[in-house]
Design goal:
DUF2306_membrane; DUF2306 domain-containing protein; membrane; transmembrane; transmembrane helix
């Protein structure tokens, strides 16, 4: 594992990673903790700002140039920006089911799904995570699997408790 590829990357990529990494951690925390509390509302606003920064910074990243510097991943950034607005609008309208659906989509599609593609060979995060240490790929993969299983078990446990 080495940070060199990230430190050598353009500033837009550095900003993108600096926003998405805490968004991933904070989002997991928010999904696992009680909802509707003052803490949830405050941290949720911070999370949405981090998601917006992540999406906006992506428009300055052009590593995959398919159409005038943009690629299909930039459509996901639009999805995230509209999703952030939808999460806020639905929370304000007290449409909590829609708010939950949007936030889960943002987290699992915008962070987990898109994040998985950043670890493909040739991408910067692949070099960060997997260069320099033979055990790093297994530790990163194990950590991701454990975190996802933990999140899913918390969600299942909460649903059973509500039934």
């Amino acid at each position: 594992m080495t940070l060199e590829p990230l430190l050598d990357a353009p500033i837009a990529i550095q900003i993108h990673v600096a926003a998405v990494f805490p968004a991933a951690l904070l989002g997991a925390y928010l999904l696992a903790r009680p909802k509707g509390t003052p803490r949830h509302r405050l941290l949720g606003k911070i999370w949405l700002v981090l998601m917006a920064i992540t999406a906006l910074s992506s428009f300055f990243i052009h590593q995959i140039d398919m159409f005038y510097g943009f690629s299909p991943i930039h459509l996901l950034s639009l999805f995230v920006l509209f999703g952030c607005w939808g999460a806020i609008a639905n929370a304000r309208k007290h449409d909590i089911d829609a708010h939950k659906r949007i936030v889960r989509g943002l987290y699992f599609g915008g962070i987990v799904g898109a994040g998985a593609f950043t670890f493909l060979p040739g991408r910067i995060m692949n070099k960060v995570a997997f260069d320099g240490d033979e055990m790093a790929p297994f530790l990163v993969a194990a950590g991701i699997v454990i975190a996802l299983l933990w999140l899913m078990s918390k969600e299942i446990w909460q649903r059973r408790r509500l039934s």
